[in-house]
Amino acid sequence: MSADATAARPIALGHLTLLDLAPPDLVEVAAHAGYTGIGVRVATAGTAEAPWPMTGANPPMRAETRRRADALGLEIVDVEVVRLTPETRRGDHAAVLEAGAALGARVINVIGDDPDEARCAESFAALAEDARAHGLRPLLEPMAYRAVDRVETAARIAAASAGGGVLVDCLHAYRCEASARTLATLPADRVPLVQLCDAPASTPPLPAEPPLLPRGQHGSRATVATSSAITSPSRTRWPGPPSASGAPARPPTSSRRSSATRRPPPPSWTARWAPAEAWTCWSTPRASCGNTRRPSSPATTGTRRSPSTSRPRT
């Protein structure tokens, strides 16, 4: 990725690419790979996903994410995710908006899970107004397995708001059966961000056993069919901000993997925080987006908590 190319058309690394990576470490990975920015998951897309501690009263992980991004010259382009449901009330997502503003993001990704288009449009318009006060712009992303499952629907809802837009994910657009002609009808100023995904052109074959996932949705059944072709990146562990003595904020815990089976240490950029053996598991095996769990790979360094001591879901 040349410097000229990224300057002319900035490209950021989406958090879903490496969702098991703590946001501060995602910054370093993106910088090392040559990206100009990142997207950060500050809220989950469903109850089966464990959140990173990025909302609330200035959480340390959020502050460290911003510090690293500023130090490395990376932009935090977007934060995600806000779900609009029939139960959504104005102000429900204030913590996400505050987190986005604290990170310096300019876009917030939105999912439409309300089948009533008029009500969904009302919720989106209210969100757009609240987001504007935080310097954020909401973009509605159509997905084949959500209530807002067509690009045309997302465009209508966005057009009814003051400043909202449409987020086009090439994978979801394809599985929503959006044609190039349909995408070409979207006003350019309504699509400030496009997501790219190197998924297969055809939907992976699924077992014929019920219940199948809705069309377009990825999950445990979909990934089993393709997992042999995927090499998961080695997980790294953020130990939290150093204490006054320079040691990690959390004490080490016992490892479940013997030294004989432990893999080599991670790239050198991880060594700046703590010796590998002193790292604790801030990045526990986590759920994928939606209601399914992502296949996990063994930890490469540090320790891995048992299920009884893993970071609780909130």
TrEMBL record:
GO molecular function: isomerase activity
InterPro entries referenced in this protein's UniProt entry, alphabetically: IolE/XylAMocC-like (IPR050312), Xyl_isomerase-like_sf (IPR036237), Xyl_isomerase-like_TIM-brl (IPR013022)
Species: Egibacter rhizosphaerae
Stretches with biased composition (Low complexity): 243-262, 292-314
Keywords: Isomerase
Name this polypeptide is given: Sugar phosphate isomerase/epimerase
Residue stretches of biased makeup (Polar residues): 223-235, 281-291
All residue ranges annotated as the Xylose isomerase-like TIM barrel domain in the record: 28-202
Region (Disordered): 205-314
Keyword Methyltransferase: no
Family matches, as SUPFAM superfamilies: Xylose isomerase-like
